[in-house]
């Protein structure tokens, strides 16, 4: 069995003080994809930077204190790659790939965007380049007899069942028609939304809740953290859960880990 978790930690140093270290010590995951680590390796405590029993690979952003992705794995990767060949985004701490036997796992932190601002333009540029990378990655993996799993915070709710207040968000970044259409294209281009394939009914379960108001208590969230896999791997998925904290005060991030187990 292979168990993979993905979680936006909302600042790895902060998460480590609020329960991440304990979660890491208890998880049954073999691979963990993290996003928004917001730290240089030397800024992390040893128990987080080099936890016992794990091989840690971090890709911080050149913009200090922003973004950052990581992959922690119990088995040492055969190869690791930062970025996807983009002159604009490869040093932005938004994408990291690790190769294992017969499998490439990637951690993605897609820009969140903001309608009417440069941030949305950046998101659209990223989506265009990254969509092309995903297609090439799938083709190369197929030629080599490998599977692909891209995990992370995609910052897009794909369908109405993927966020609580979808009607109020139709003109907001994360649920724009063009963003949702792009995600549909990714899925029709050879990838499977693993969680939704196992749990086709909605609404939810959600993986992110704003810290504002009573969003968590009311389960007014978004499903924006995904496992997108090539079909051969997706077919081997046996279980998928969102590790939602029991209560607001037990959260160590505004996201919850999304964990999927695959037959190896």
TrEMBL record:
Cofactor: Mg(2+)
A family per Pfam: Exo_endo_phos
Matching SUPFAM superfamilies: DNase I-like
GO terms assigned for molecular function: double-stranded DNA 3'-5' DNA exonuclease activity
Keyword Protein transport: no
EC identifiers of the protein: 3.1.11.2
Enzyme class, spelled out: hydrolase
Entries under PROSITE patterns matching the protein: AP_NUCLEASE_F1_4
Domain of life: Bacteria
UniProt KW keywords: Hydrolase, Magnesium, Metal-binding
Domain Endonuclease/exonuclease/phosphatase positions: 6-255
Annotated family: Belongs to the DNA repair enzymes AP/ExoA family.
Protein's name in the database: Exodeoxyribonuclease III
Organism name: Saccharopolyspora griseoalba
Lineage: Bacteria, Bacillati, Actinomycetota, Actinomycetes, Pseudonocardiales
């Amino acid at each position: 069995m292979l168990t993979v978790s993905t979680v936006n930690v909302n600042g790895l140093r902060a998460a480590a003080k609020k329960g991440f270290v304990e979660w890491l010590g208890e998880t049954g995951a073999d691979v963990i994809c993290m996003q928004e680590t917001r730290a240089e390796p030397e800024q992390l405590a040893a128990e987080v930077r080099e936890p016992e029993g794990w091989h840690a690979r971090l890709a911080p952003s050149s913009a200090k204190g922003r973004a950052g992705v990581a992959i922690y794995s119990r088995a040492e990767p055969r190869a690791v790659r930062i970025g996807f060949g983009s002159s604009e985004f490869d040093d932005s701490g938004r994408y990291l790939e690790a190769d294992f036997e017969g499998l490439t796992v990637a951690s993605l932190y897609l820009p969140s965007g903001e309608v009417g601002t440069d941030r949305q333009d950046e998101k659209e540029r990223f989506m265009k380049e990254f969509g092309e990378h995903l297609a090439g990655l799938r083709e190369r993996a197929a030629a080599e007899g490998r599977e692909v799993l891209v995990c992370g915070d995609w910052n897009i709710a794909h369908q109405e069942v993927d966020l609580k207040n979808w009607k109020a968000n139709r003109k907001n970044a994360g649920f724009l028609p063009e963003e949702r259409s792009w995600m549909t294209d990714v899925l029709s281009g050879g990838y499977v939304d693993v969680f939704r394939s196992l749990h086709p009914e909605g609404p939810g379960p959600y993986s992110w809740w704003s810290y504002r108001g009573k969003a968590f208590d009311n389960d007014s969230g978004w499903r924006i953290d995904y496992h997108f896999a090539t079909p051969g791997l997706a077919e081997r998925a046996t279980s998928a859960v969102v590790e939602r904290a029991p209560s607001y005060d037990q959260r160590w991030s505004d996201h919850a880990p999304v964990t999927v187990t695959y037959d190896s």
